[in-house]
Amino acid sequence: MSAALIEAGNLTVRYGSKAAVDGVSFQVPKGRVVGLLGHNGAGKTSLMKALVGLSSFDGSLSVLGMNPLRDREKLLEQLSYIPDVAILPRWARVDQLITLMSGMHPRFSADRARTLLKRTSVGPRDKIKTLSKGMVVQLHLALMAAIDAKVMILDEPTLGLDILSRKSFYEMLIDEWCDGERSVLISTHQVEEIETLLSDVIMLNEGKLVLSISLEDMDTRFVGLSHDPAQAEQIASAHPLLRYRQAGQSAALFDGAPPEHITALGQRFRPSLVDLFVALTRAPERSRQQA
Amino acid sequence: MQTWTSQAPIYQQLADRLADRLLDGEPDEGEAMPSVRTLASDYVLNPLTVSRALQTLVDEGVLETRRGVGMYVQPGARLRLRLAEREKFLKEEWPAIVEKLRRLGIKAHELNWEI
Questions:
Q1: Does A288 contact B at CB distance below 8 Å?
Q2: I need a surface site. Which of A19, A281, A284, B115 has the fewest CB within 10 A?
Q3: Domains with residue ranges and CATH for chain B
Q4: Where is the HTH gntR-type domain (chain B) (predicted)?
Q5: Is A171–B48 a contact, with Cβ atoms under 8 angstroms apart?
Q6: A269·B6 Cβ contact <8 A
């Protein structure tokens, strides 16, 4: 396998004395769709900002073989980034934006942007301020996907969109961006609906990495066991990551298959990404209460 | 969006769904399968998951890969799928049905076979 597109080693991002990202190591190879998950304040945006050279960091970080801080301008030519606070100029028309991008970005293809927009209901003469929120996000993705880049970084791109807009966003992402070579790192709170889209997941909890795994490995490593409430005590003795109730049944989630006499007490199931997310991360206020 | 159960890996569930459609002749034997990207976008799935599902169907002799062109439905695929489905039904589903009929005390002659 060729070198990873993104490689972070012991990456730390500080704001004053607080570490927003705390000693995080991971790799993103080519052709992957990586979900970056974490509660609000877990460090997702800080991590993404470091990747695109918008915040200083300690540790090692290489994006497309470059140091984001030192080679920021060159890096931004080869990387597409939609920040969580992304806005497009409201006064502009779509075709004006395309012209603007052509002048600004050496790897931007106006033709490709126009082709991509044909998938959407956004017309070239539309003014940005007349577009719905969903259409603006579609437009933004079309502009970013028209850049000949290897990595796309999307910070909560579907925030505030209704389900149909989210679906067309994901469809366009798969159809027009994922080609087996390019990778995308995408942060979101819509864990449930993004699960099937991902090839890998990175989970942050209070700045620390709690999981970095491919979905394929996740299926084999984590085991769910639904069981009768009467068996709860025996199940608990095998130290599951999490115990909860679903659909009137008790369920437990294990890291690694539990011993056979425990498995025999219930029905194995494939834990969802949401189950794992709940098991491995906690809302900051809850951790504080427990501390 | 599509719904998937927690009982089996998603690639397996997709392979089952594609097999169901193949049984209905979509697409017909000898015809091309939709591309990985088309399926990925239709089902909102990661392309790797789709490739794995298609590979499962190749391994079962239902699809064949034509290098550089794509996947095609093998001649005899529907017969093979039907036989596999029959075996699965008789082995996995039928015993559960028999068990339920027993529990409800329903005899064979009480069942309507003309539906």
A1: no
A2: B115
A3: 10-110 (1.10.10.10)
A4: 8-76
A5: no
A6: yes
